[in-house]
């Protein structure tokens, strides 16, 4: 089955000169040689661009563990200070409104949709114990094949819950990190120290992750994806520590370890490129987002309204036929009493057309788009409304999905019922668990069946592992066959 995980490839995918085009060209099951070499060239350019930036890593790798512990302590202190500030009545530091937070979730989607991808190229070294900690990080990013723990699937679920899909059309700057991560994932042979250095930077627990999780929760947005990263990336036993172990084990005992360390620092610096958490949050402009959203909607909307209602001398279809006049249209709606800004949105006739199952425009706007309109209309009144941890203030009352509902959504995204991994490392047994014989045959199982017969045809463990590696590619691991392959790979590796 083609699950709905795979991002549809926009037209720009053919253009390997843009971060967005490169991103989608590398986010293919088996990227073309042209895409792979464009990825290498992109990496080379970005490494050159960051070479002169300061690097916060210690000068010697031996100091790395102490350095990591100091970083973690600083982040902990800063977070405690943030909590004190909030307790004393300070407003949220990141998200003024719920739509601001949803904008953030959508804007970082290109990066989150390839979570872990930079480590993909290390999987083929599964037989080399030095890379075990880093391969374990990759498998944990994939939830060891459990759809409820696969980070990419979890993020897709979060986006779907809040109507934040459509990120494929974002501007190039939002694809810089994702393109870099994919290029590293397909460039490990040439850029091994850089991959390890990038991983080190990515897996450190940042302050913004803690604050984001706190404020999302406050706005009624399930912070699980972010809290999961706080726990799995923890510096005591989690990815941050494994990342340091990965560095120490990969450092060459013979040869030029200085230049290895230098290149590792260069890879570390790549984390600062492109749109990051803080810049995305600062970039948000509610007026602009509302206008851009309505302009995009106007394409379809300009043909479907009846002409009986005129606003400011024009029919709705006429207004929508000229997307660059959306601001004027909004001003006309306000001037003619359809919108009452800085009041609860329920006071606006326009809002009442949108919200509620009997509303005339029910279903026209996604949850995110409704939230944008809600917060734009509410204006000051939304900013001053009191925040409550369960998010009741945020306007759109939506029941939080139950645990079972969340599970069903994950299953739908992954295209299969959740079957958790079993323990047993034997090759024969592992392969028999990949065989869907006995399951009612249907089109939904075809990819899993194809994987099972592919695995059966392999002569030995090495060939089986290599077949599985192909299925763990960034574009495939969150599909039903990819999840199954991840479970098998983890068991056979373990
Ligand atoms: Fe992750
Ligand atoms: Fe991680």
Q: Kindly give the count of domains.
A: 3
Structural class: mainly alpha
Side-by-side strand order of the widest sheet: 1-2
Q: How many beta strands in the DSSP annotation? A: 2
**What fraction strand?**
under 5%
- Rg, rounded, reads 24 Å
Bound molecule types? fe (ii) ion
Provide a count of the helices. 25
Please state the average pLDDT score.
Answer: 85
Overall spatial form? globular
Region (Disordered): 413-454
Pfam family, one: Haem_oxygenas_2
Protein name: Iron-containing redox enzyme
Organism: Gulbenkiania indica
Can you characterise this structure?
- Residues 413-454 are annotated as: Disordered.
- It comes from Gulbenkiania indica.
- This is Iron-containing redox enzyme.
- Pfam families: Haem_oxygenas_2 (PF14518).
- By secondary structure, the protein is mainly alpha-helical.
- It folds into three domains: 11-283, no CATH class; 286-385, no CATH class; 421-493, no CATH class.
- It is built from 25 helices and two strands.
- The chain has a two-stranded antiparallel ribbon with strand order 1-2.
- Helix 9 packs across helix 13.
- The two termini are 29 Å apart.
- Residues 1-7, 386-395, 397-404 and 417-424 have low confidence and may be disordered.
- Residues 115-116, 141, 151, 229 line the site of one fe (ii) ion (FE2).
């Amino acid at each position: 089955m083609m699950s709905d995980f795979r991002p549809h490839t926009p037209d720009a995918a053919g253009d390997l000169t843009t971060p967005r085009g490169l991103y989608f060209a590398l986010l293919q099951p088996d990227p073309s040689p042209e895409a792979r070499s464009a990825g290498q060239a992109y990496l080379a350019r970005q490494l050159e661009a960051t070479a002169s930036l300061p690097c916060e890593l210690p000068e010697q790798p031996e100091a790395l563990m102490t350095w990591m512990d100091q970083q973690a302590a600083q982040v902990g202190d800063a977070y405690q200070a943030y909590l004190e500030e909030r307790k004393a009545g300070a407003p949220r530091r990141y998200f003024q409104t719920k739509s601001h937070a949803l904008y953030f979730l959508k804007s970082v989607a290109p990066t989150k949709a390839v979570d872990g991808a930079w480590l993909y190229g290390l999987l083929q070294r599964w037989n080399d114990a030095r890379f075990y900690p880093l391969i374990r990080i990759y498998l944990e990013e994939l939830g060891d094949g459990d759809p409820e723990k696969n980070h990419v699937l979890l993020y897709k679920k979060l986006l779907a819950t809040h109507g934040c899909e459509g990120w494929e059309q974002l501007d190039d700057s939002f694809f810089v990190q994702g393109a870099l991560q994919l290029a590293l994932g397909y460039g490990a042979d040439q850029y091994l120290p850089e991959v390890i250095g990038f991983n080190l930077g990515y897996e450190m627990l940042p302050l913004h992750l803690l604050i984001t999780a706190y404020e999302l929760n406050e706005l009624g947005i399930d912070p699980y994806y972010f809290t999961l990263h706080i726990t799995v990336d923890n510096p005591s036993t989690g990815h941050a520590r494994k990342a340091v172990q990965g560095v120490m084990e990969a450092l060459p005992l013979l040869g030029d370890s200085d230049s290895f360390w230098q290149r590792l620092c260069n890879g570390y610096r790549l984390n600062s490129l492109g749109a990051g958490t803080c810049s995305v949050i600062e970039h948000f402009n509610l007026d602009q987002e509302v206008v851009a959203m309505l302009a995009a909607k106007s394409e379809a909307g300009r043909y479907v309204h009846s002409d009986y209602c005129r606003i400011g001398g024009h029919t709705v279809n006429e207004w929508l036929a000229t997307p660059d006049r959306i601001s004027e249209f909004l001003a006309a709606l306000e001037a003619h009493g359809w919108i009452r800004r800085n009041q609860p949105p329920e006071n606006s006739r326009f809002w009442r057309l949108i919200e509620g199952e009997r509303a005339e425009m029910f279903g026209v706007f996604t949850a995110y788009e409704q939230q944008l309109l809600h917060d734009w209309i509410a204006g000051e009144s939304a900013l001053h409304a009191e925040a409550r941890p369960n998010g009741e203030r945020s306007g759109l009352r939506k029941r939080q999905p139950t645990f079972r509902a969340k599970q069903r959504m994950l299953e739908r995204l992954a295209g299969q019922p959740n079957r958790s991994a079993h323990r047993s490392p034997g090759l024969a047994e592992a392969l028999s668990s990949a065989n869907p014989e006995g399951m009612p045959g249907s089109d939904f199982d075809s990819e899993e069946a194809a994987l099972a017969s592919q695995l059966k045809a392999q002569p030995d463990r090495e060939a089986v592992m290599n077949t599985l590696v192909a299925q763990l590619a960034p574009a495939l691991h969150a599909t039903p066959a990819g999840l199954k392959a991840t479970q098998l790979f983890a068991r056979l590796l373990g």
